[in-house]
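INFO  loader      accepted 1 record
INFO  loader      residues=329
INFO  predictor   begin
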Amino acid sequence: MDLSIVIPQLNEEESLPELERWIREVMEREGYSYEIIFIDDGSSDDSWKLIEKMVATLPTVKGIKFRRNYGKSAALNTGFAMTKGDVVITMDADLQDSPEEIPEMRRMVLEDGFDIVSGWKKKRYDPLSKTIPTKLYNGVTTWMSGIKLHDMNCGLKAYRSEVVKSIEVYGEMHRYIPVIAKWSGFTKVGEKVVQHQARKYGVTKFGLSRFIKGPLDLLSIMFVGKFSKQPMHFFGTIGGATFMVGFLTFFILGANKFYALIYNLPAKNIADISWFYVGLTAMIIGTMLFVTGFLAELVSRNAPHRNMYLIEKEVGWEGEEKPSIMHLG
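INFO  predictor   done
INFO  writer      dumping tokens
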């Protein structure tokens, strides 16, 4: 299969039929074999009913319904597990991403050798409350990760299939998928200027929580990407250095006390000196950090890695072999 198009959606019932028609027009014009996977992230409108109707009449459409809202990262992660295309496209369901960009992004992956091609909405139709945080996050992420993208959080992206099968997206980390991919060894990241459409239906799902969650997720990705497989390198290094500070403090206090005893000089009891407690605290903290690193190393090497989401329904895979996704409830 040429393309898998993964579309998370939440309460976008007005946009879905038009988006599917637009994608179908582009795919048929280019002659691609494709699948569209809609992930309903706990919608409260009639989105799922529309998806079921499309699945019943269109063999290219498939759908997954969550029992509740898990967030865009969970939706993407689940959709990635179900894809079969050589190239995977992600896009938003609000008609602000243009399917006309898909053929060129696919070409950049297959012919130019990129692992990821990220869209860049150079001319945006979003309010300042959304564009200003986006520019801030892009600047900070570029500085911390070394990945130079103008629009890291653009929903329109193209991936080589191996990329989406090798990464795990959780929490609110969909904003930093290129960073996650980089830590997994996929370093060829390209960028394409894409057309941005003004929102036609519904309202934006952007919230103030992004101001808090975004930086925290970025720090988490940077830490996990560097130390998840060898946490002892982080905790052990800091713990060892802290322990040595405490040990040297005790050594200096002990040497001064010993010197005073040899030459019959007046000297305080070591326990009456404030530096004694500084050294003791440093040694205790250092030991705790070292033990934490050791335990984290054991957990990292033995813990199974799996994703569990409450999936209520799947439609469109009847008679097809598909990857297994864990169901709860």
